[in-house]
Amino acid sequence: MNIVDFDFWMFIAGLGIFLFGMFHLENGLKGLAGNSFKRLLQKFTNKRWKGILSGAFITAILQSSSLVTLLVLAFLGGGMISLQNSLGVVFGANLGTTVTAWIVATVGFKLNITDLSFPFLAIGTLSYLLLDSRPVLKNWGSFLIGFGLLFLGLDFMKTSIENIADQVDLSLYANLGLWVFLFVGLIITVLIQSSSAMIVIVLSALNAELITIHQSVAMIIGANIGTTSTLIIASVNGTADKKRLAAANVIFNLVAGTVSFLLLKQLVYFTLHFLRIEEPLMALVFLNTTINLIGIVLFFPFIPAFARFMNNRFRKSEPSGISLYIKNVDPAVSDIALKALNNEILRVYSLTEQFILDCLLVRKDERNKISGFKNIFRAEKNLLEIYNQLKSIEDEITDYYTQIQKFNLSESEADLTAGYMIRLRSMIIAAKNIKDVIPNIKEMSQSEDKLALEVLKQLQDFAVQNLTKLNQLSKQGKAQDEIADLQSKYEKFYNLTIDFLYKNIPDKALRGVAVSSVTNAIKKTVSSLEDLTTSVINLEFAKGAGLKEK
Fold first, then answer.
1. What number of other Cβ atoms are within 10 A of residue 79's Cβ?
2. How many angstroms separate the first and last alpha carbons of the chain?
3. Which of 167, 182, 404, 494 is spaced 20 to 30 Å from 160 by Cα?
4. How many angstroms separate the CA atoms of 8 and 16, rounded?
């Protein structure tokens, strides 16, 4: 072969145009239907098989397994999807990427694709450049540019390879083992970071009869393994969840690739002679899909066990901090980041609610009367330590809020995040108020003074009753007036309890407990409940203003 006859720069230009087309196609689709796909991905992942189908479908549309994996990571970190179901999505995404090969094989090698690309490029470029004020049309323009560039790049690669096809003696490669072609497919895919582009290269080589069907399948297997490098690179300094997904994807493709490589000759024979798919290009894309299906069939029964296995890996890479949701979600994915922030705020509310009860020394049997409460902190835990944990979570949320602001938020999203922070501040103030009277409450509970104990009992009953009611109203999502009415009762309770205390002091003189300690406990307990109620009202106000939690 005269290597000079190979138009190297035409081939590289074609590859670059193809990859740039993928970029525009992905961006256009993200703008047109990104949120819809995110909702679909979140909704249809409660079962393993749903996760696989959702991952395959969305990847087939968006043409980016990397984008789908990023969304899965965000959902996983935000507690919206389990690792078990996220594995199903990632496995399905591998299957979805094969759609590119089907499109190229059925259209790209049967039509004059250069002429086909011109209308897409013309309309798309003009729309993208001239309709900046119309986001939907601009995104359609990006999509059309991507579609046109895909076929233009394909034509460049196909032409450059065809120019040397008749100068290549295939007998020179006959003695090379198929593992060499697998290795070549793997290396090239790692270098160009796109299995779709690698498949196009292999299809072009097969179409020009540079390689045989067996050699092309070996290269495709290598490409499937090589494409895992993208996620591996992204996970190097990533969270434990990102490393788990990357490792799971590597294991999936290694197992599927190894089994397929060992059965390569049988799979090709079955396709060509049993299914009678005699056209090489169609046979190759069919086998590409089959390889990924083999992996899914092999892993599907073991996904729960595999998820448990992966959960025990990379423990040292767990994000630092005591927040539960936000530390695992990239703030760049704004809508999912807002959902994680909302979940974290709800968690702080529950912790503050429980902290108030623990500070008031509400007994276990009384605490169990409150619907939905979880014994998050053990009773013997130091209350000041719990308060410091709440303060630490506040600091983490504030830092996360600052990071979110660096990205382009809509006006409603910006207002919603500000509302979250106001609500958070109210909850921490509520915790501080009750924390300040821990010594007073302890003094009252340990005294033998009947009046002090009776006042403490009133405080405990009032807190249990009103926290239960507040919890119920906040979950209804449309109880602003009722919550405001609840808040108005606090002043009345304060006045009645103070009046009760002073009226009974002459008959039941306090022994060992200062009156100031009791009045302080009453005042701070009521203030704590008022502030917690204020945090719920802030949330209701945000909803009333037309802001919906993501």
1. 16
2. 60
3. 182
4. 12
